[in-house]
Amino acid sequence: MKINEVKQKAENLIEVGEQARQQEVYCRGELDAASSQLSEAYDMLDYASRTNEKGETQGDVAGAQARVYMAQAHLESCERALREALETIERIKSQKYEVISQVDQYNETESGNLSSLELLRSKKFGENAAKFVTDLLRRMNAGEETKARLLNSMGIAAVAATFQAGMGTIGQDQSQNADVRSAYSGLSTTEAKIRNHNQRYYSAYINPEEMNRPMSESVVFVNENEMKTLLGDDYEPNILGFNDNVRSYINVESSYVIETTVHENLHQLSSGGIMQSEIFNVKNEQMNEGITEYLTKQTLGAEYPQSGYSLYDDNMIRIQKMTGAMGSQLVEEAYFQNKPELIQQEIDSHLGSGTFDRLSKAFDDSIRHPEAGILANNIINEYVSSKLGL
Ligand SMILES: [Zn+2]
User: Fold this and answer.
1) Long-range contacts of 13-19 (CB under 8 A, 24+ apart)
2) Pairing relation of β-strands 276-277 and 241-243?
3) Rounded to the nearest whole angstrom, what is the distance from the C-alpha of residue 267 to the centroid of ligand 1?
4) CA-to-CA distance for 251 and 243, rounded, in angstroms?
5) CA 309 to ligand 1 center in whole angstroms
């Protein structure tokens, strides 16, 4: 289905429908006239048929009779024309509903395509995908306008719905939000800082193309409401940001836009870091967050907030301690090159097989259970002691 053809078809139906409606109005007028002609003819017949004392009719009965027949025939033809007009109106109405359901089906399919396109908006094809998304939204909205016009033409009050989706409506150029625009204008400063640090410390682990990719391609600043739309069921109030391996979404309504931009960009560059996906769960999730936040702190140096702002603060401090003994190179290589086994071998070689898994689990549990944090601290203390030969 091509949206332009649908629009054309709808316009034709609206035009033919309007003609049929005018025909109906005309027929109803004619019908009224025909009814009064008929009653006049009956009156005349009645008058002509009156008889005097001798029983003779006073007028032209046959003539009056003929007028009655004529008026009856005219009335019938008017009734037929009206019936035809009404049938045409009904037929056009059902054709209009057919077009409306085509538009609905089309937009339902395209909504699905829209989500896939947004996911597919990969690094290389990002620009094309963005254009596809824009075109798609334009076609879908044209469909909605056509639908509203068809409904209005049938006397049904309808306002065209507007499709909006992730990249279609949010981003630098589209946003009317002052916080969002100011976040974009500050991005180049943050970017220079990040790039400088990354090149200096991580160039051995990140490929240059990835490292030099402009952040404007991957960073999307959004407000709380847009965050809500993007996350759907996963939304929780005051989320600072998230990264979906394609883009980093940063909440501009938090006080930590720069910190979050650095954090999410690290997720972007490390594509999963030391996390491991298993069938039923994700391993090393909070250890990965701890490293991400630790590297955020390394990148921002003195500009990193003094008091812990992030949910990952405790795990960040644990990673910091662990890295002090382990060496940052090992942690960075494991993180940027997706090699959790490097950390695992290091920990297990000192504290025995299975210790890393227990530590990783303790990191994950510590988010909800403080006692798991104590367990993690104990393991890290043992590791540091063993490493330092204490
Ligand atoms: Zn994170």
Assistant:
1) 13/92, 13/95, 13/96, 13/99, 13/150, 13/153, 14/96, 14/149, 14/150, 14/153, 16/88, 16/92, 17/89, 17/92, 17/93, 17/96, 17/153, 17/154, 18/153
2) unpaired
3) 7
4) 12
5) 13
Q: Is 174 helix (H, G, I), strand (E, B) or coil?
A: coil
Nearest-CA neighbor of 299 among 288, 291, 311, 307?
291
For 173-182, 247-256, 260-269, which range has the lowest pLDDT when averaged over its residues?
173-182
226 C-alpha to ligand 1 centroid (Å): 19
CA of 243 to the centre of ligand 1 (A): 8
* Cα 299 to ligand 1 centre (Å): 15
- Whole-number Å distance, alpha carbon 381 to ligand 1 midpoint, is 25
Query: How would you class 223 by CB atoms within 10 Å of its CB: exposed for 0-12, middle for 13-18, buried for 19 or more?
Result: middle
Identify the residue whose tokens are 């920990």: 347
**Ligand 1 centroid to residue 228 C-alpha, Å:** 18
Q: How far is the CA of 352 from the centre of ligand 1 (A)?
A: 29
pLDDT at 125 over 60: no
C-alpha 289 – ligand 1 centre gap (Å): 5
What mean pLDDT comes out for the span 6-12? 92
Token pair of 168 as six digits: 């279609």
What confidence score (pLDDT) does residue 298 get? 96
**pTM as predicted:** 0.58
